[in-house]
Design a protein that fits this description.
With about 230 residues, the protein is of the alpha/beta class. The protein has one domain: 3-Layer(aba) Sandwich (Rossmann fold), CATH 3.40.50. Helices cover about 15% and strands about 35% of the residues. The chain contains two helices and twelve strands, in the order βββββββαββββαβ. Strands 3, 4, 5, 6, 8, 9, 10, 11 and 12 form a nine-stranded mixed sheet that branches. Strands 1-2-7 form a three-stranded mixed sheet, covered by helices on one side. Helix 1 crosses helix 2. About 35% of the residues are buried.
Length: about 230
Amino acid sequence: MVVVLLLTLGGCFSLSRKTPVLEQYVLGSPAAEVRAGPSDRAGFTIGLRRLDLAPYLAIPAIVVRRGDQQIVTSEFHRWGEELSEGINRAFARFLAAEPSVRAVDVAPWSVRSKYDYLVQLHILHFEGAAPEETAGTEGEVRVVANWEMIRQADGVVLARGATDHRQGGWRVGDYAGLVTLLDQGLTAMAQDVGACLVRLGPVPVRTTGTVESAVGPALACVAQSQNANAR
């Protein structure tokens, strides 16, 4: 896969030592995997809300978790945009490739825009996971999120789901590889949401054409992809 990488020089020019290079990455590589198969152009239209991002992730640096509690960041490996915006943009692209989806718009949108469902993401983990031993080099990637599907007309939550995607095969220190695997985690989450949309079906309406206000308990959608094997 190809990861978009922006390189800039960090620090001042010095003849005494090599100047570190600041590496900046963005999500949603054109080479990232999307689900193959025929697309239903009569599928759902989705409005993707601004996501809820865990506070420790809302920093410019790409996060690596060592063990259970230690957070490690590098001054020279950063996101090239706000992470919340990057995740939403990339996820929208992957979700739009799902056979059950016709179109995806990302907030903010026009007040007159109408969608079959709104999707709200809550990103809990989005990081590399390294062994607790500092000499360890075999890590994994974690993309963990909760999400809801909401009826736009009245804000009722019609379905809830969760994605816990953990994928091995990451070499600690390989930030380009880490971003590629994070893209794959977003693809897996888009597939989970797409499968849930199929189960949920069309927005319920009255025979008169008005949107029904009373609904039962929210549909619980189980993630389709967890603990992916290393490639």
